[in-house]
Amino acid sequence: MRAYGVAMRFGVLGPLAVWTVDGLPVRVPEVKVRALLADLLVHAGHPVSADRLADDLWGDRLPANPANSLQTKVSQLRRALAPHGRELVGYEPAGYVLRTSAVDVLRFQELLRQAAENADVRGKVALLTEALALWRGPALADFADEEFARPAIVRWQEQRLTAYEDRAQASLLLAEAGTVADELAPWVAVHPFRELLRALHLRALDAVGRRREALDSYRELRKRMVDELGIEPGPEVVAAHQAILEQAPVRVRTNLPASVSALVGRDDARDTVRRLLETSRLVTLTGPGGVGKTALALETARQLEFPDGCWWVEWAAVERDAPEAVLVDVVLAALDIRSGSLDDVLRSRLLVLDNCEHVIESAAHLIARLLAVAPDVRVLATSREPLGIAGERVWAVPPLPESSAMELFVARATAAAPEFSLNADDEPTLAAICQRLEGIALAVELAATRVRALGVAELAARLDPFLTLANGKRDVPARQRTLRAVIDWSWELLSDPERAVLRRLAVHADGCALSAAEAVCSGEGVENGEVVDLLARLIDRSLVVVAGARYRLLESVAAYGREQLGAEAVRTCQKHLAYYLSLAERAALELRGSQQRQWLSRLDVEAANLRAALDFAVQQGEVDTALRLVNALAWYWFLRGRLAEAVRSLAAALALAGDSRYRAETACWHVGIAMLAGQPVPASPSIADDRARWFFGFVRSDFGDPADSEALVAEALAAFQASGDRWGMAAALSTSAKLASIRGDFVGMREYGEQSLAIFAELGDCWGQLQATEWLGEVAEIHGEYELGRKLGRDALAMAEDLGLWPQAADRLSWLGRIETMTGDFVRARELHERALRLAREQGYLPGQAFAEMNLGCAARREGKFDEAERLLTGVLSKHPDPGPARVISLAELGFIAESRGDGRAARTFHQDGLAAARALRDRRAIATALEGLAGAEVVDGRVEEAARLLASADELRQSLGLPVADRFDADRISTAIAISGG
């Protein structure tokens, strides 16, 4: 391929796109010219006749001179692709051809081929992940309706789905079921009858403890296939369903990393720790670095079962002496909980808290509090020193016995050099080596990597004098001196570039991607292109660990590397800060578009590095950089519900001295998120820009007078329309739909919601679509359009699950259950509400718990289960003493229960309280409901005329709002009661 073939890159896996080799977009004007380019790309380097192109472009409306018109479009395309247009768009006897291999779909297909040939499961997952990341949305989205594009689009989409299935199968082998369950959910919704996809999703749901969801999914599929297709599910789905039914207890979610290699020589130790956990709620494994505390804790946890799972929390990346609040954030993130109090969500779990020693005071205080408030939680901690709190059982992890150390040495030496085998003559020498290394697992592993170069005898000869001379500090225990000596020795054997990469890598928190390693570790003797090879050498020496696409250092090696930085430390941390600032600022753009899910996941993985970068910026007093970083991360924190972390980080940046043009934006984020978090709100700042104005209006729609919010949102919408900010327009329209709901403008609510949804869908922003769908779903429910409501609810649920927005997923489940209550399917309603309640509790999402419990009460009341309904609804009232939708509806339902029992006085009290709460909210729909309830109470007491008057007032109010009579809570029952009573 000549050089012009890669002078530009072309994209069809999404809207048609062209970029320069530097990644800059190339504009191809005029629809027909873009269609011509799309047609040539669809034919993948094969010539297309002029007649075929003309027919594709104009169809039945051919111009008077098709050949000339086509030539004009070809010339326009060549000009758009200048200076390589003529070479790229060529002409051959068979027709026009686009001469390039730089097309994203060709790269996609090549990666699929490589994945199919790759026998390594992790390698296969990595290749498929890279391939799927090339997709920017539906293929050729702007030409999806064109006949010439449809066959290719169908073919590429099938390849995409197959790639998702292949990756899911491989990921399940790697115990990554959580990722698979979340990833496949939206595809199952779109392709419900694709059976391999469904079978994989069932297996993944079951593996992460969502067994009921898996069973619900199978039942839904079977019903649809029988009803709509007249056939039963195929063998793959049936087998997955049967496996779920046959297994014993439901497996629960966990984040314990999969075991990479067998734990050698620790069977007795593991059994001892298990027995200690049976009798003690806190067990702390102590010992020097490298002795194997973490490996033993993880292996023990993998053998245990707790009702709510075993969860691993890594504190090594947290700043030394970090406050307790930071540790709480890390625990919540590890538990995949977005909001709420840690005290409320622990229940019956095992927490494995790793590396407590450098945050010992905060860790001890937090663990003591958690053990006090969560009686069923147990903690397995690792630390170089005891925590020193009541109830702690301390167990010092012993070094490996000589035989186990030798076994570990041989296993690691064989992994590093497959040709290695231990001769009988070498056994005494190896025993002496392991004895000298004092059975410290990390020291044994590091020494074993040198066998390939030295052999056993030479290793022993070099090791003895080194340990004698290089024992490090004399004021630490002998075993710690031994480990340090081995790391010293490994360090001495490295080249200068290898040492540079190792010590610079140590500034990363909890590992890093290759791009970060290249950015931070290159320079001053290390070329950027050399970093990957140097990392490979460090991996061979067991100094760097690679997991998936991330590189990390063992804690002891990381501490050693930071010591070696010396005067280079600040300079390296500056590079680390610059890289993660750039990453965050790019993410701030990508989080408002089609790559939202990928960038949420990427920032989740990099949370520790982003926190470390901010800490460094604050410590150095770099006010501009710190403010830029928190501004870039604010939307991520909001989407993930990490409001406490956001408020604390924004406040830390604002506390820095110095003028900065970024300060006003930070202040806006700080006030808005503090309001959402229920924290004391700082003085209102000046509005930084139009998006800040919208965000203020969005936040204030839940606080205070809705009129204040309406003014802010209206101003922001006008500004967005004037500037052409499509995302801003969609966000403001969605908030306008919410405000329309509050004031009872249901026509406006639908119009705003539909406009918002259309723009967010065009942008590919799933969070935005979720927001807009919420209000459209409410309109559908109000007007009795239950099928539409179900579809919107399911779409929203899929989006929430896809993004990992579990509180919103809980709300969507409740709304779907509410529709089933309205249509009389109380069994299905209960299943949905119970799923919602379980998820809300798991997330510590108190409003979601109240919403689910309220809806369970509504369903129970309609079933005639009054005692159960009363218990649930009374519980909601106790949790929500202030006026709010949950309180208003609960009061109405309790009033209806009292009315059904013939207690008019109690019914009237409940409905009068509900009326007062509805008026406080200015919620006219709720006012109508309260009037209906009062009508029912009057019927019970025989005051039929008053009942008829109240019901007429309620209906008049509904009519003024454009609401159907079907929106009444119990319209037929109350009307019938009035009629029977003579009204």
Describe this structure in a few short sentences.
By secondary structure, the protein is mainly alpha-helical. It is built from 45 helices and 12 strands. The model is unreliable at 1-5, 248-252 and 469-476 (pLDDT under 50).
Keywords:
983 residues; mainly alpha; Arc Repressor Mutant, subunit A; Serine Threonine Protein Phosphatase 5, Tetratricopeptide repeat; Rossmann fold; 8 domains; five-stranded parallel β-sheet; three-stranded antiparallel β-sheet; 12 strands; 5% strand; globular; disordered N terminus; BTAD domain-containing putative transcriptional regulator; TPR-like_helical_dom_sf; P-loop_NTPase; DNA-binding; Sig_transdc_resp-reg_C-effctor
What does this structure look like?
The protein folds into 8 domains: 1-174, Arc Repressor Mutant, subunit A; 176-251, Serine Threonine Protein Phosphatase 5, Tetratricopeptide repeat (Alpha Horseshoe), CATH 1.25.40.10; 267-396, P-loop containing nucleotide triphosphate hydrolases (Rossmann fold, 3-Layer(aba) Sandwich), CATH 3.40.50.300; 402-492, no CATH class; 496-676, no CATH class; 701-803, Tetratricopeptide repeat domain (Serine Threonine Protein Phosphatase 5, Tetratricopeptide repeat), CATH 1.25.40; 805-881, Tetratricopeptide repeat domain (Serine Threonine Protein Phosphatase 5, Tetratricopeptide repeat, Alpha Horseshoe); 896-983. The radius of gyration is 32 Å and the shape is globular. The chain starts with 7 loop residues before the first strand and ends with a helix. The strands form 4 sheets. Strands 6-7-8-5-9 form a 5-stranded parallel β-sheet, with helices on both faces. It has a 3-stranded antiparallel β-sheet with strand order 10-12-11. The protein contains 45 helices and 12 strands. The model is unreliable at 1-5, 248-252 and 469-476 (pLDDT under 50). The chain is mainly alpha-helical and 983 residues long.
